[in-house]
Write a structure and sequence with these properties.
Organism: Reyranella soli
GO molecular function: kinase activity
Order of helices and strands: HEHEEHHHHEEHHEEHEEH
Number of strands: 9
Largest sheet: 4 strands, mixed
Keywords: CBS domain, Kinase, Transferase
Protein name: Histidine kinase
CATH class of the largest domain: Alpha Beta
Pfam family, one: BON
Length: 231
């Protein structure tokens, strides 16, 4: 899936020339926590969020620095702090370094961008213009769209066991100790030994995700440390 498949196309945005009061009203009215800031040509020039508007002199929430911070503060830093808490222009409080992506970006690429830059939403641009936005909520909707909505034909226990075994054998965390898979009525029983608790959990989750598995009884046991030391 790509950005164009999941993005919200009906975009709420604000003009770079608008005021912080316009931004606050827009955020509340649209029930969103952030919106893209665009210029007159609809090019994205920033993002303004609730966090950009909560430290304000008007409501007495401007950050207070202790005496040491004030002593070490530069004139430029003090001026920046004053502008951020007293300006009435969106352009002065918005985040200017905007992470964007194109409509053909994959969902994997979008998630990697979000994690790398610590952002919750990615504006989608085409030819310099804003065409949509993908938020974490849009990714959750994409996940729900892949939820199985109809039962698949139930494979035989023999075929199901083979599918589980093949799935487990392909994993990099496959146990070096003996493990056994038994299937009865679509229920998988896992027996044997693994190196650690995380490996045991991984075995169970991998088996659960094999199509046709109705349940998993995980009897795998962690190999004692003394045994491993004897190798």
């Amino acid at each position: 899936m790509h950005a164009k498949d999941v993005m919200t196309a009906s975009i709420v945005c604000i003009n770079v020339g608008d005021s912080i009061f316009d931004a606050a009203e827009l955020l509340l009215g649209a029930r969103v926590s952030a919106v893209p800031v665009v210029d007159d040509k609809k090019a994205v020039v920033g993002i303004v969020s609730e966090a950009d508007l909560v430290r304000r002199a008007e409501i007495g929430t401007a950050a207070r620095k202790n005496w040491l911070a004030r002593l070490l503060d530069s004139d430029v830093s003090a001026a920046n702090d004053f502008v951020a808490t007293h300006t009435r222009r969106v352009a002065d409080v918005m985040t200017k370094e905007v992470v964007t992506a194109g409509p053909d970006a994959t969902l994997r690429e979008l998630v990697e961008l979000m994690e790398r830059h610590g952002v919750k939403r990615i504006p989608i641009v085409r030819d310099g213009g804003l065409v949509g936005i993908v938020s974490r909520a849009d990714l959750l909707c994409a996940l729900l769209s892949r939820e199985p909505d109809r039962p698949l034909p139930q494979p035989s226990d023999t075929a199901l066991r083979q599918a589980v075994v093949e799935t487990l054998e392909k994993r990099p965390w496959t146990s070096r100790w003996p493990t056994h898979v038994f299937v009865s009525g679509g229920i998988v029983d896992l027996w044997g030994f693994v190196d650690d608790a995380q490996g045991r959990k991984a075995y169970g989750i991998a088996a659960e995700n094999v199509p046709g598995v109705r349940g998993v009884n995980n009897h795998l046991r962690q190999m004692p440390a003394s045994t491993k030391m004897g190798l």
